[in-house]
Amino acid sequence: MIVRTTVAVGVAALAVLATGCDEAEKAINKGGDTPCSDYLGQSPDDRRVTVTKFLEQDRTGSEPSAQTVDGSMAAIQVMCAAQANPETPIREADLTGIVIPR
């Protein structure tokens, strides 16, 4: 009985920690102000958090669909990889920035 309780408490603690880490990442993530150089260095999971936060900032807090996040991640990846200035925030990454540093 004690072993089951200990295991249950341990699993619950891990779940809280995992959820807390995701929320902490969202809190410190810059969203659309993230420089392209930082974005390109992020893991795929961190990129998803960055793009989701950016889209929420742009849409006044409404949560974007998974398809919108996926499409935006692909577009930002291409635009950031080609920017003349790697410090361009992801919200400003566009075709013009490929030729003219921002």
Number of strands: 0
**What is the rounded distance between the termini?**
64 Å
| Major sheet description | none
Mean residue pLDDT? 78
Shape: globular
Rg computed from alpha carbons, rounded to a whole number of angstroms:
18 Å
Task: Write down the secondary-structure element order.
Answer: HHHHH
Helix run count: 5
Which architecture name of the domain at 31-99 does CATH use?
A: Orthogonal Bundle
Helix content: 55-70%
Structural class of the helix and strand makeup?
mainly alpha
CATH class value of the domain at 31-99:
Mainly Alpha
CATH topology-level name of the domain at 31-99: 10k-s Protein, Hypothetical Protein A, Chain A
**Unreliably modeled segments:** 3-20
% residues in beta strands: under 5%
Give structural notes:
This protein has a domain at 31-99: 10k-s Protein, Hypothetical Protein A, Chain A. It has 5 helices and no strands. It has helices at 2-28, 36-41, 44-58, 66-82, 96-99. Helix 3 (44-58) packs across helix 4. The chain is globular. The N and C termini lie far apart (64 Å).
What's the helix and strand layout?
Layout: H1 2-28, H2 36-41, H3 44-58, H4 66-82, H5 96-99
Helix pairs in contact: 3-4
Organism: Nocardia bovistercoris
Protein name: Acid stress chaperone HdeA
Question: How would you describe this structure in keywords?
Answer:
68% helix, single chain, 102 residues, Acid stress chaperone HdeA, 10k-s Protein, Hypothetical Protein A, Chain A, globular, mainly alpha
